[in-house]
Amino acid sequence: xxxxxxxxxxxxxGITRRKVLIAGGSTLVxxxxxxxxxxxxLGQTKDSPNMQHRGITSKDGGMKxxxxxxxxxxxxxxxxxxxxxxxxxxxxxxxxxxxxxxxGPELAGPRRQAEQFQQNFAGxxxxxxxxxxxxxxxxxxxxxTIELVKPYADFKHKMRDEQxxxxxxxxxxxxxxxxxxREAERFAxxxxxxxxxxxxxxxxxxxxxxxxxxxxxxxxIAHLLDPEENALxxxxxxxxxxxxxxxxxVPSSKGPVEKAVDDIIDFKTxxxxxxxxxxxxxxxxxxLADHVRREAxxxxxxxxxxx
Length: 307
Ligand SMILES: [Fe+2]
Ligand SMILES: [Fe+2]
What we know:
By secondary structure, this protein is of the alpha+beta class. It has helices at residues 3-6, 36-41, 76-100, 108-130, 138-165, 174-195, 203-224, 230-248, 255-276, 286-305; strands spanning 17-23, 26-29, 56-59, 66-69. The protein has a four-stranded antiparallel β-sheet, sandwiched between helices. Bound molecules: fe (ii) ion (FE2) (2 copies).
């Protein structure tokens, strides 16, 4: 069992989409290559009656799989497992980025705090991978995650203010602290909603959240590309503009947002590969490229469910 190691390891190749079905107390896995991480991700317990009809899927591509609830699922347990798998990873990586972008002895203090958060969320990710969540315990688990997320969002807000005021001189933009705080708060809000048994997604809320997130991702990409990558920088900035327009004026139907998200998935997938293989010049860490790619997949999935 090496799920601690797998969290930062590239996913196994050869499966474009894994589907894990749990039915009648047995785990049916859509591929033979399925590793221990997926079994533990589902808290595989063959005898647990609550495992019936519970399911999540994972999408491959890039460095790590993207965990999502099964299409059409309204099961609060499945949604909780999927979001804990997805967002605890993202929270852990935010801290990893902060650590990377807080170099030198003068930033040792905030860097140590960021390292602590990185450990907290790596631990929570391990817990959800190992847990067997069901109707009886998922609310407690969600609460334990929310208790980690809240001080983390406070930390991000505080760091944003410090950076913006010039008191903190890290390489993390105030906007990046803000962006990651917004994701933390949304994560906590969704878990709270699942704990009330509600898995619905409001179209306007989802569109408002994801358009600003996608717009900012495009801006981050634009500002981390090598200045020589002019065409890509222009494209990223245009993409950002498009999302920001939609954020200001959320379209009445979700079609245009879904289309824009699909486009940015293609863009990020190509960017991630180009960065990893040295075809695109940038200071975008491959982990960051893959991080924003997975969030775009999550955006597309939520918009698909939204009503
Ligand atoms: Fe993120
Ligand atoms: Fe993000």
